Structures are given as C-alpha cells and as structure tokens.
Amino acid sequence: MPVAESNLPDLTNCARSDALAVLTQRVPAAKAEAAQALYARVLAGDAVVASECVLDEPSGLPGRPERPELVEPRKLGRRSMQSPEGRAVLLHALAHIEFNAINLALDAVWRFDGMPDAFYMDWLKVAAEEAHHFSLLSARLAEFGHTYGDFPAHDGLWDMCERTRGDVLARMALVPRTLEARGLDASPPIRARLQQAGDHASAAILDVILRDEIGHVLIGNRWFRHLCDKAGADAHQTYLRLSDEYRAPKLRGPFNFEARRDAGFEEEELAALAGLDAQQRTED
User: Fold this and answer.
1) Cβ neighbours of residue 171 under 8 Å, at least 6 residues apart?
2) Where are the domains of the chain?
3) Segment 234-246, tens digit of pLDDT
4) Distance (Å, rounded) from C-alpha 165 to C-alpha 170?
5) Which of 115, 278, 125 is CA-nearest to residue 215?
6) Is pLDDT of 74 > 90?
7) Could you give the CA distance from residue 178 to residue 171 in angstroms, rounded to a whole number?
8) Which end of the chain is more exposed for a tag (fewer CB within 10 A), N or C?
9) What is residue 79's predicted lDDT score, i.e. its pLDDT?
10) For the whole model, what pTM was predicted?
C-alpha cells in the first residue's frame, strides 16, 4: 500500500538535509561559505531543522578535496616557527583542524534525529564559526604563499566522528569535550610562540579561535549532560566509560583550566585533570 503523501517528511527548506548537502561539498572555500549561509538562513527563519526526519547517508562522507595528503600523525614533521615556512606549516595544520571541525558540526546536525531544535541550532552555529576560522586561516596562509592542501595532514578528528556515528552521547563526550577541548589547552602556548616570532597577525587569529572554541566545548558539555540526565546516568562515570569503550586519546597536560572552566567542565573533572597533570609531570 503506498504511503500517504502527507506522511512523507517534507525536506523543503530542511536545515538538516541542507547540512548533509554542505557536508558532501568537496571544495573547502565553498563549504565554508555554504555553512555560514545555512546558519544565516536558519536564523532568518528561511529553513527549519525538522528534527524528526531520518536521512539516508550518502557514500563518500565527508566531502573533501584530493589534497592534503592524509598520513599518520607520527609522519608529520615539526618545523621552527621562527621561519615563515614553519609558520605556514602550523597555519596549514590549524586550517585542517578547522576544516574538519566544519564537517564534525554538520555531521552532528544531519545524523542524529529526534533531538531538541536547540541542539541543531547550536551545531549549525558551530559549523558557521568553524567556517569563519577556516577562512581566516586560509587568508593568512595565502599571505605566506600557500593554500590549504600544500602540506600533509592527519585524519584523527574524522576518525572519532566515524567511531561515534551510532551514538550521539558518545559523539558529545568524545568530540567536543575531548578532542576539541584539547585545542583549549594547545592554543595559549602556540599563540605565545607566534608572538615570540613576531607574527602578531597569526596570533590574533588564535585569539578569535580560542574565544569561539570555548563556546563550542560549552555546547558539547551542555548536550552531553542533557543526554546523561535524560538517561539518569552519572556524567563523570559515563564519560570515563565512553572514553575507554571508544579508545579516546589519553589526555595530557598542561591543561588550560581557566578556559575549561569557562567551557563548562565541572570542578570534579578539573580536579581529576590536575591530578593527572601532576602525575605526568612526575613521570616525565
């Protein structure tokens, strides 16, 4: 018996369907522009999230260019930031992180149905801000005579996205509040090295990224705790279980406790990180 037309999901002006379309976009600059435009459309009321729609996954996610070459992290060399080439390598690595972050946010929007509308609005906002970061870094990279794709990169961020594809709770635990939270710790020392090298323009971009990333991790913390509360689960123990189950990277200090506190980490978690940091310093 054919399904009544009125029971079919209406994907006209569906932000989640459009997010999937943007995710498939292979051209980085076009993806960044489309992510920002999609969020603007939703804010203007020209698109709705349609949380109940279950979307079919196309092949080839995420859309990305043929370059950069993706290699294992250990194969990525380190260069001094005292040289322009070394700073270009760093800017490229940061641009790669931000490009992946666009994909991660868009994937959360289209993949996980049945969440509150605010969930999708939050991650569309994140996608738009990550797109802005990518654009800033790409423009700065161009001033060094390079484009995104000129240097090899690794695929660690998307790998965790793949692992958590079937569990929104694991996604919230292990992408924003684990992998992206590591960026909160890494930004200040990187910024300091850029300043020391006299690269104030690049350091200023790091300021923008850190400010916004605090908000992104806060969003991840909020939805992680929302899901834990809904399931009647202890957030701290659930996080430890998921970290082990999904083989999350082991956290290493030093930690940016101020930024992590602003991003919604609770004092119990921060105390555990302080103990871990002290232990690692002793072992080192």
Assistant:
1) 108, 112, 161, 164, 165
2) 81-283
3) 999 999 999 999 9
4) 9
5) 125
6) no
7) 10
8) N
9) 74
10) 0.93
